[in-house]
Amino acid sequence: MGMSPLAFFGWLGDSPWSVALHESQYAYSIIESIHVWTLALFFGLVVMFDLRLLGLTMRKVPVSEVVGRLLPWTIVGFVIMVITGSLLFFAIPLRSYQNLFFRFKMILLVLAGLNVWLFHSRVYPKIAGWDVDAIPPSRARIAGGVSLALWTCIVVSGRMIAYNWFDCDRQPQTALINFLTSCVPDGAVH
Amino acid sequence: MSLLAFFQWCYDTPIGDTIRNSTWLFPVIEAFHLLGFGLTAGSVLIVEIRLLGAGLNRQPVAELAANAQPWLLGGVTLMFASGIPLFMSESIKAYYSFAFWIKMTCLFLVLLYTFTLRRRVTRTELSSTRPALARSLAILSIALWFGVAWGGRWIGFS
């Protein structure tokens, strides 16, 4: 309907559950700790898999076996990351929505998802030809390298969300920053 | 020199001072610290999950551990290279932080375990001869790393 994203996330932030999460002494910190723990599981194993695709570790282990045995763990990790990450967003919706690093992270996540989709739809179906190769073919190495770069940037930008350098309440910012963060410097909205 | 005096000395070094007076340095170093942790976690977990019998079960533990070892060393090196400057920038805060001491205790224990007993665990076929013991040690290792991560995150909350 007629609600702008800014108004919507402002409204969400005023909802009782969001306020409770935001004001709770421990809930936010505990959720963030779980987010970091699952980062170890998800990011850690993704890195190891990407390194295998690049031919930099576990060269004697068939790639299909790494996928088959580790993918369930990364899925578990990813699901918990999405749940805890959503709760962290829900605790501070408007500020997160307008945060430059949050927006950057979301774009990178879409790209990482695209890379996963390309790998599983285009590269992985032909694995029979290179499953046991110490160094997989260039298509697989590219997928591994892109994944490694994207997830590294996702972790870094995720960590940077905590910093308020480009927050709307810290004016003056350049016009570009205010555009990228949907900031309305005079505070006319909400 | 008392411990607090040593922490104060770290705090007063040009490195600590430079990081404190910079807007970007602490967050950037911290990001590398987190990436180092992620790399360490991955290279540790791939072996521990195998010891738990829930990972690459067809691979010999010794081979998997040998494969992961350079990345483990790289991850730990990155964590120390970034963690020490971070510590120097806020060593006084760390001294009075409960989370910091939890983290250091877990870190000391897990590094001690990783570079002594764990080498023997991964080089012998403990996972097939005494699977329960191998599982317990894997859980201990994961729990200690969890303690390191928890303490690290909570230093920032205090």
Describe the structure in your own words.
The complex is a heterodimer of chains A (190) and B (158). Chain A is mainly α and 190 residues long. Chain A has one domain (5-180). In chain A, 70% of the residues lie in helices and 0% in strands. Chain A contains 8 helices and no strands. In chain A, helix 3 runs antiparallel to helix 4 and helix 3 (27-53) packs antiparallel against helix 7. Chain B is mainly α. Chain B has one domain (3-155). In chain B, 83% of the residues lie in helices and 0% in strands. The two termini of chain B are 26 Å apart. The mean pLDDT of chain B is 94. Chains A and B meet through helix 3, helix 4 and helix 7 of A and helix 3, helix 4 and helix 9 of B.
Q: Tell me the greatest interface.
A: A-B, 33 and 37 residues
Q: Could you give the count of β-strands of chain A? A: 0
Number of domains of chain B: 1
Total strand segments of chain B: 0
Q: How many domains comprise the coordinates of chain A? A: 1
Query: Mean pLDDT of chain A, rounded to whole units?
Result: 93
Radius of gyration of chain B: 18 Å
Task: Return the structural class of chain A.
Answer: mainly alpha
pLDDT < 50 stretches of chain B? none
Unreliable stretches of chain A, pLDDT < 50, 5 or more residues? none
Strand percentage of chain B, roughly? under 5%
Helix-and-strand structural type of chain B: mainly alpha
Q: What profile does the largest beta sheet of chain B have? A: none
Number of helices of chain B: 9
N→C terminal distance of chain B: 26 Å
Estimate percent helicity of chain A. Answer: over 70%
